Amino acid sequence: MTQSPLPVSGAWRSGDPPGSRRFHTFATDHPFALEGGAVLRDVTIAYETWGTLNSDASNAVLVVHAWTGDSHAAGRAERGHETPGWWDDVIGPGKYVDTDEWFVVCPNVLGGCQGSTGPASPHPDDGEPYGSRFPVVTIRDMVRSQASLMPHLGIKQWAAVMGGSMGGMQVLEWATTYPRRVRSIVPIASCMQASAQQIAWGVIGRRAIRLDPRWRGGDYYEAEPGDGPAEGLAIARQVAQVTFRSDNAFTQRFGRNLTDRAQFGDTFGLWQEFEVERYLHYHGDKLVRRFDANSYLIIGKAMDLHDLARGRGTVERAMARINVPNLTIGINSDILYPPYQQEHLSRLLHRDGMVSEYVEIDSIHGHDAFLIHFDEVGAPIRRFLERLD
Amino acid sequence: MTQSPLPVSGAWRSGDPPGSRRFHTFATDHPFALEGGAVLRDVTIAYETWGTLNSDASNAVLVVHAWTGDSHAAGRAERGHETPGWWDDVIGPGKYVDTDEWFVVCPNVLGGCQGSTGPASPHPDDGEPYGSRFPVVTIRDMVRSQASLMPHLGIKQWAAVMGGSMGGMQVLEWATTYPRRVRSIVPIASCMQASAQQIAWGVIGRRAIRLDPRWRGGDYYEAEPGDGPAEGLAIARQVAQVTFRSDNAFTQRFGRNLTDRAQFGDTFGLWQEFEVERYLHYHGDKLVRRFDANSYLIIGKAMDLHDLARGRGTVERAMARINVPNLTIGINSDILYPPYQQEHLSRLLHRDGMVSEYVEIDSIHGHDAFLIHFDEVGAPIRRFLERLD
Questions:
Q1: Which of A199, A389, B217, B351 gets the most CB atoms within 10 Å of its CB?
Q2: Within an 8 Å CB–CB cutoff, is residue B204 touching chain A?
Q3: pLDDT at site B197
């Protein structure tokens, strides 16, 4: 459950060719008041960049990540990131978001565990991990903490802000909170406010983590490595994992085979595994190795609290603040952020005489399709960016 | 977590007008070999009946229940059953399944906790609850154990076998295992074999119960009352509860309101409840009071193992054994047993020249609609039974 060691300076990473990619952290020098009432005394935001900012700083694209994502949107597998960037097929030189043209920035969210301030970070009072002391943050807090990157990087306006799932929530908060700092937006498989069903899945995951005795009320960092709430986190992840995929994708891939009938002979056992169960275990265990359970809780709660309308009257009034070209992408088999929500969102973004497009990806893979079908999601993004130029 | 005390004789229940309803138990006098290889030394099946068996025993209808249901399909709330029968609006004198005409039998399933042999029952070796010693049972085992009721009651053939969800699984196993003992069938919102997604939800619930330290590997009956795996069972139930309902039903009913923002002042807290969360807690806690966690595990596993094709080649070959009038009912908003599965099932039941009907209920309530929209589910059943006569 321990956090992966990550470099915490603005220096070039060794092994990265200069100009190709940078990992930085940026620490604010003033207290950060959260929407929920608490104050963080200092906030560090880890981020990576690809490409080069042009002379008038007009080519900056902000890419924002989903629940268990991080700043490593593109690039190779490496220390601290055991897989290539989560959008490595979308972002890069000559790719859909072409880093020969665009300067791409991807921050790790506030509350995360991959370099930005989160529950595993040292509390300024005592240098011990925040743990249970870490306050609830909101999507709006994440966005406000990212805004401090703009003067730091010399950017006055993002050419585009894009992201899927929780990334899409940040996209919408960016455009609503800072309408003049955003020139266009690409929300993908996301929502304007969490629905009761989305919240319900979140609640169940949180309760599973809390039930794990090794969670210790959130203060498990002193425990031996590997003695954190791995099972609780794995169950929470499995709940999410099922909602991220689809009935048909599961049937096609796993059917209803048992993995280890042989081991049990011809008998059935209560803990005998189905193929789909092994898959869920694999994904649960994989997350446990790279992600902090408290970050999972904090970020999940932020998604459930996501509500563009909070403090702004209605969703419609909040969305009316957004007056920029937009591309909304939905996935036809998404059971978590269903297409009808994406179409509704896109309708509210429509402005006469302005580029406003809705694209629905045809996929069996459900919500996760935006992390699987890179061509289907990348191609409309490239077309959209070309029309902006 | 303790089992509700239930009468265990075939006598009239005090307070029931003679002829209206009876609760019985029936104990087999020989070992019962389970499909999974284990043997139960004795099996008791609790059941209730309504109406009167006619002289040629041609008016017997078997009603089979879902996961957390029991034999109390109709009748008042009473000791051991804190709510009226789960189909009380469907079954009774003058109702859709008219007990002035039909003799209705509803057994509690094998593995259950409402009178039939299950994990909380005494093991014949030592009189202590089976607990972790209770073997995995299958839907086929449930049906075979119910078959022993037929000679006991003097019934050679059921006029109809009907049930929803896991009840529908039993309906199909009845007609496939005992084609000549079933004159017609009514499967509702069910399936021919559990899909990978259905199994995935089951797996997650089981792991949540196992994670609860108070589950004690299944041997928690010695614990103080109220010290069983209540939280694990509640989480498992909540997973199921979300799949039993629908996105839109939740939105309409709960929106995304917090229940206790006032209590937290203007701040947000990690465990601050949304309305939908309170609803989930309510349903989780309600189940915990009336249902045994081990029965939940055993019955859930039985559903995941449900596969009409096992030992019979293919689903199509298994379904070809069924050659009786049939009515299949689906629900358009069911995300767990989606309408396309019901239509597929109904197509495989179609025989030229035989009553074979598919009815889809239009409801916002999802899978649970068959326990909510009594008129919509009852009316086609009455029409179907009338056509049988």
A1: A199
A2: yes
A3: 95
- Which of residues A263 and B84 earns the better pLDDT score? B84
Nearest Cα to B73, choosing from B44, B34, B102, B33? Answer: B102
Nearest residue to B280 via CA among A238, A200, A196: A200
Query: Rounded CA gap, B155 and B107, in Å?
Result: 15
Record the tokens describing residue A334, joined without a space: 């998404």
Report d(CA B247, CA A191) in Å as an integer.
13
Run of H or E including A244: helix A230-244
| Residue closest to B209 by CA, chosen among B119, B80, B276 | B119
| Domain-terminating residue out of B261, B281, B302 | B302
**Does residue B14 belong to any structural domain of this protein?**
no
Same domain, B115 and B133: yes
Is residue A328 located within the same domain as residue A281? no
Q: Is residue B205 in some structural domain?
A: yes
The answer to whether residue A64 is domain-embedded is yes
**CB atoms B136 and A267 under 8 Å:** yes
Strand B160-164 vs strand B185-188: parallel, antiparallel, or unpaired?
parallel
- C-alpha distances in angstroms, B362 versus A195, A208, B221, B331? 22, 34, 43, 6
Closest listed residue to residue B138, CA positions, set B302, B298, B297, B299: B302
Nearest C-alpha of chain B: how many angstroms from A122?
20
Q: Does A298 reach chain B within 8 Å, measured CB to CB?
A: yes
Say if residue B63 is in the same domain as residue B184: yes
Same domain, residue pair B26 and B160: yes
Q: What is the pTM for the complete model shown?
A: 0.92
Angle at B236 between CA B235 and CA B238, to 5 degrees: 60
Q: Is residue B56 part of a domain?
A: yes
User: Rounded to an integer, what distance in angstroms lies between the CA atom of residue A189 and that of residue A167?
Assistant: 9
pLDDT of residue A15 exceeding 60 = no
Same domain? For A283 and A380 the reply is: no
- For residue B103, give every residue at least 6 positions away whose Cβ sits within 8 Å of its Cβ, in sequence order, or none: B49, B50, B51, B52, B53, B54, B59, B60, B61
Question: In this predicted structure, what is the pLDDT of residue A261?
Answer: 58
Shared domain for B276 and B325, answered yes or no, is no
Q: In b/e form, how buried is each residue of A87-99, taking b as 16+ CB within 10 angstroms?
A: bbbbbbeebbbbb
Q: Is the dihedral of CA B35, B40, B42, B43 positive or negative?
A: negative
Residue B386 has pLDDT above 80, yes or no: yes
Say yes or no for a CB contact (<8 Å) between B200 and A238.
Answer: yes
Number of cross-chain residue pairs from A and B with Cβ atoms under 8 Å apart = 171
Question: Of B302, B318, B346, at which residue does a domain stop?
Answer: B302
**Range of the structural domain that residue A50 is part of:** 22-193+308-388
Residue B355, domain CATH: 3.40.50.1820
Do residues B68 and B182 share a domain?
yes
What value of ipTM does the predicted structure carry?
0.91
User: Which residues, in sequence order, are CB contacts of A218 under 8 Å at separation 6+?
Assistant: A119, A131, A132, A134, A294, A297
Specify whether B250 is located in the same domain as B357. no
B301 vs B291: CA distance, rounded Å:
16
For chain B, the domain total comes to 2
Contacts with A384 (C-beta within 8 Å, 6 or more apart), sequence order: A160, A184, A186, A325, A327, A355, A357
Average pLDDT, chain B: 90
B79 φ, ψ (degrees, to nearest 5): -60, 130
Token pair 């061509």 in the structure block, residue: A375
> A352 to each of A178, A290, A319, how far by Cα in Å?
21, 45, 15
Helical segments of chain B, H only: 139-147, 149-153, 166-177, 196-211, 230-244, 247-254, 275-290, 293-304, 315-320, 339-349, 374-388
| CATH code of the domain in which A251 resides | 1.10.1740.110
Say yes or no for a CB contact (<8 Å) between B280 and A203. yes
**Chain B partners within 8 Å of A256 (Cβ):** 193-196, 199, 304, 307
Amino acid at the residue A103: F
